[in-house]
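Quick one:
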Amino acid sequence: MGNKKILIIFPDPWISVAPSIINFTRMLEKYGISSVILYYHGSGEFYNNNLPLKLYSVKLPKILEKIFSKAKILSYIKIFLMLFSAYNILKKEDINKVVGVDDVGFFTSLFLPRIRRIYYSLEINRGLLNKIIFTFIKPFVIIQNKQRLSYLAGNYDLNKVAFIQNSPILENEYCSYYEGSKTGLIYFGNLLKSHGVEECISLLRLMDEKLTIKFFKTKTSEKYLEELKRKYSDLIKSGRLIFQDFYLEQDKVVDYLKNFKVGFVFYDQKLIRKNYNYATSPSGKIFNYLAAGVPVIASKLTSFDFVEEFKCGILIEDLDVNTIYQSVQKIYSNYNEYSNNALRAIKFLAYNHMFEKEKEKIFYHLNLD
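Output:
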């Protein structure tokens, strides 16, 4: 296939916590295709410099970012900034293939001459840019599932679609770990009230267990963390509630998670009704749990149907502490079967497995074959 190179235009600052894009570059590298990433830096710290990738970024002064965001024109400013930078990158790197992430990333690519381009969907919306893209351009798109495709693009030609979940690359097949060798429950993800953090913590009032909350540190999470520390100080002092905010590289996540018994993935009903991204959530953490042989308890969403299909956890309708408690007890009563089923499920849902199934279509539309 030779030495080929693509540009990925990523319109947000959180590239280091976007495992789908990182895994995409790793799978391309397997076939001799290198990647260059242009991203919008923003004002947060996302440890992007730790990534083994060639990165370029554009940035706005924080005050201008706030003004443009409030005026609801930040997306258009991003397009202008990244387009200017992309022109320079294409000249310097000799690239003629682009992967545009979401509406802003792909729309930027439309103004670049003489390139092949595809759309990689992470966050879905029905804004003006996406309406233009999927009504008139109708690009090849990589997306997580059919529900999200239908919301984003309606009745779309499946020959122009690759379905790849937001899951880890499965490099090692883990064996099931006996329940007694694990160290409690795990909440892995954003520290948000709407994600059921306090229901998970309250579970400790009903059972003698430990809960580790591993989250990504932001200004918002810092404020909420202080509130939780005051409210649940007794559980923290007893060593039963543990907060961890250190950065964990994607290739170390599964090894970290395999030490826990049960993982949680929750969204409250208001959030699900308000945001279709959550209603059809491609949540990466649920797949990381499965790859580590950790059974899950999750909100009942159609995009999580595989949990019941593979019997690798339990889906619940409402965020209720007693329901969560009963679900944990049910998993504990037949732990090894649930854990083995988690490992069986990820063999079908792992990123590399799904990529290989869709590889020919992706390479064809990027003219890489």
